[in-house]
Amino acid sequence: MDIFSRILEANKGNNSDSFCFDDSEISDMLLEGDMAFPKTRNAMKCLNDYCKWPKSPSGQVEVPYTIASDFYDDEKAVIENAMKSITAKTCVCFVLRKNQVDYISIENLLGCSSAVGRSGGKQQLSLSVDGCVSHGIIEHELLHSLGFHHEHTRSDRDQYVQINWQNIPQASAYNFQKKDTNNLNTPYDYSSIMHYGRTAFAIQYGKETITPIPNPSVQIGQRKEMSNIDIQRINKLYECGEHITHI
């Protein structure tokens, strides 16, 4: 299906333990195909910002992580490069876990999946080596872990896309239900890395489940790189201040 489009952009980088700039099995309980039920609300709307990752005294948002040992070095490099891409454009940085209580555990499980936002303690982020270890998919899952739902389920989506319920199996209908989201005063983004493709979960091959409106020819569902609006939202959600990239 569209969300698992195979886009491999594996530019090998160094294997540093931190991606901060130096400036002093998928379970039965998955949402939208790749979102595990969080223990808390969506990080975009949660009590006392608990679902957001905290800032360090330097103003950076540090997200501790571990990577399972069964990934090959080249697979680990692709994962780390996706982290670096986020760090380069936001105040979020990924640091190798030492003794932090809350952290992301990146594991080779079944499928691609993540909790939404910081759920507390060890939270698994699944990147199966059979189709999930590519740059765009990794960024997609990391953005879930930072607190973002899919674009096609945001609260104002009906102004921008038509959901073709007749082409969606009843068992998959929950994948298209709207969420009560804080859209951070940003426009609907067809090019978001968090947007599903037009035939995702289709009842029959080639049938459209999502059609852009008013222009049905607009492309949706890319898994290459975060869009400018994706970057803007991260910076808004985490109040990146001087770290905000000018786009």
TrEMBL record:
Pfam assignment, any one: Astacin
Where, by residue number, does Zn(2+) bind?
140, 144, 150
What top-tier enzyme class does this entry carry? hydrolase
Which GO molecular-function terms appear in the entry? metalloendopeptidase activity; zinc ion binding
Cofactor entry: Zn(2+)
Q: What are the recorded Gene Ontology BP terms?
A: proteolysis
Task: Spell out the catalytic residues.
Answer: 141
The cofactor note from the UniProt entry for this protein is: Binds 1 zinc ion per subunit.
The record places domain Peptidase M12A at: 42-241
- Keyword terms, alphabetized: Disulfide bond, Hydrolase, Metal-binding, Metalloprotease, Protease, Signal, Zinc, Zymogen
Among InterPro entries, the record links this protein to: MetalloPept_cat_dom_sf, Peptidase_M12A, Peptidase_Metallo
Reported EC number(s) for this entry are 3.4.24.-
> What is the protein's given name?
Metalloendopeptidase
